[in-house]
Amino acid sequence: MPEFDALLLARIQFAFTVSFHFIFPAFSIGLASYLAVLEGLWLKTGEQRYLDLFKYWLKIFAIAFAMGVVSGIVMSYQFGTNWAVFSDKAGPVIGPLMAYEVLTAFFLEAGFLGVMLFGMEKVGRKLHFAATLMVALGTFVSAFWILSVNSWMQTPTGYEVGANGQFLPGESWLAIIFNPSFPFRLVHTVLAAYLTTAFVVGGVGAWHLLKDRTNAHARKMFSMAMWMAAIVVPVQIFAGDMHGLNTLEHQPAKVMAMEGHYESHPDGAPLYLFGIPNDAEQRLDYAVGIPKASSLILKHDLDAPLAGLDTIPDDEQPPVAMVFWSFRIMVATGFAMLGVGMWSLLARFRGKLYDWSWLHRAALVMGPSGFVAVLAGWITTEVGRQPWVVYGMLRTADAASPLAAPAVGASLLAFVVVYFAVFGVGTWYILRLMKAPPHTGEKGVKRTEKGPVRTAGITPGPTQNPGGDPDVLPEDREEATDGR
């Protein structure tokens, strides 16, 4: 790949693997909580329908969770292979935080996941429900630590720079963990995960309603998903606005790129709906905008001045085109979600929630919308931070390992082939499970009895021997006789 240097290939590789990985936690975080709600409702009401839905989605959760774990392991290796300088300089700060994620969240999930998947017939109902709650809590705690790490890279605080150039913890770890952007990003990302799950569940419910409107299980899952959409999407829009104001305060160049503001606006900035960013000429071509609307949104004042990229050195500006368009995809998807949620409220109040086929078709189309929104938002966040890997302190170009482009290119190609093969099959199987309608008497996750059931091998049970000790095997008795 002669036209790509090692730095660009390393960035593409990490972007590819993290995008693949982010799909699964964005789904499993919300789905774990949904499973906890279903099991809780079953225990409270005794309705078989909730238990059936729990077992239906439990199978899907098991596969999505496994693929999330596998895809996440790869990224940690890249810190050492492709980003060794970053690992060396930022390791004293981010290393302990990522270790806390393993010691708390991952151990919590791993400890109770087996009980959740296979223990319903082996432990009491309350204990099984506690295990489900612990898995749901573990997914949230995992998001907490990972977002704390990433938020520190966006808004670094609570550190000091050592004599060797390393970022070292300062007087308080709380300043590092709860850095200025972390609370906003945590709320925004977790709500996005819940909405991702809600629209997947709603899409599956809509699919089965289009086939059979009398399916009670499909009705219930569709109703629950639409309640989530109608209630949480407006909250998410508000949380996104708060996150945007925080970003304007701490990362103004990112907001300038999101808005397409190449030039400063001393008397109120327009909200550009569309346009073609032109970095070479530092302008937005074919711009279509609403006068002063951007100042109203960002400053809550029509005439508030907003600085543009003309106040930022050229070598510190993010790639505007990618940030500009990914931000608009995220916002457009969010308002489309809002539209479906409000449509469902209208149908519910008219008693037509299960009868309006066009609503069901819209919900089916919007099934993957959560994944689109979280990926677009992630691209906006990460690309908008460039050219910094630790904002304002460590450039991306200075954080990469000294590797040759062919080496990085070869591993990138291998990742692309393996990821599409492995995770493509996993995704196909999840879709296959979703295609089957939920029904009374769902079996849930089955444990196979093939092969050893003990990690140390098979321990034979006691064998009755005529005239001898029932715990002594025949071959042992022969060896004992020969010895005498």
From TrEMBL:
InterPro entries: Cyt-d_ubiquinol_oxidase_su_1. Residues 440-484 are annotated as: Disordered. Residues 440-452 have a biased composition (Basic and acidic residues). It is a multi-pass membrane protein. It holds the Pfam family Cyt_bd_oxida_I. The chain crosses the membrane at residues 12-35, 56-77, 97-120, 127-147, 191-210, 222-239, 323-346, 358-379, 403-431. It is found in: Cell inner membrane; Cell membrane. Its main location: membrane. Residues 472-484 have a biased composition (Acidic residues). Keywords: Cell membrane, Electron transport, Heme, Iron, Membrane, Metal-binding, Transmembrane, Transmembrane helix, Transport. The keyword Hydrolase does not apply. Belongs to the cytochrome ubiquinol oxidase subunit 1 family. This is Cytochrome ubiquinol oxidase subunit I. It comes from Qipengyuania mesophila.
